[in-house]
Give the backbone structure.
Amino acid sequence: MTAEAIAPERPAALQARYGERAVPETGPWNQTIETILAHRSVRAYRSTPVPAGTLETLVAAAQSAPTSSNLQTWSVVSVTDPATRATLAEVANNQLHIVQCPLFLVWLADLSRTERMGKERSVTLEGLPYLETFLVAAIDAALAAQNAVVAAESLGLSTVYIGALRNDPQRVAAELNLPEGAAAMFGLCIGYADPARPAEVKPRLPQSVVLHRGRYDFSQEAPVRTSYDRTMAAFSERNEMARSSWTDRVFSRLTTIANLNGRDRLRTALGVLGFPLR
Ligand SMILES: Cc1cc2nc3c(=O)[nH]c(=O)nc-3n(C[C@H](O)[C@H](O)[C@H](O)COP(=O)(O)O)c2cc1C
């Protein structure tokens, strides 16, 4: 039996992700990989609520992610109150899907629990204030959230991360009553995609640019990026009407401090929230 006979969706999934000219070789294939490759961020949701128990299933998926030294230094807040949602949307440059999606989760790097444990036993945790420990918490939160994303998408739900909550982590912390040592890393909208505003799978860089075999080698990178720029310009024209290449997008995100939307002050904000980042 050929691979195509086993998984007829495979070529289509890879073409959507890489374009026809950059389809990579693949090995064994299954429905889990199919689900992961079909990911696309969705920014328009139906008001239909998610089924009862979905939140708990997603959190179980999240808690099944690996966690550095089993420290479990993350938490998640499910935000239901419309006024709180509105404030969070305001922090995030008025992204309406934050208000509209049936489930909105805020993922926290959370060292407050660890700190409480130390205080209870009168143990000084000297490693707590270090950048390393913050990174552990931030990485754990991201891994957990991405497990929830894959689980949600496997159930036919759609998602979009909201990094724009980091525009003002102090306002988010005040709104969610976060203790010292907890900070929002990003939000996550979850719900059923509005079929009137479908989202397309967004092509990624060809694997030759991101996959290095043995040693890092960027000698062939520039022409591959040029070709990807054309792919992404066509994608953006199809999906958003404005024709802009990937390079354009990368530059517009990073050429000015103003475009960081307040996140240039993140180190200070995290300091105030209990992360000295030594
Ligand atoms: C940590 C993180 C934060 C993000 N923040 C936002 C956001 O604030 N608003 C938004 O519309 N998309 C956000 N995104 C979605 C990205 O723009 C999206 O993943 C990227 O353009 C690739 O598109 P795709 O997810 O459809 O493949 C975020 C993604 C990640 C991983």
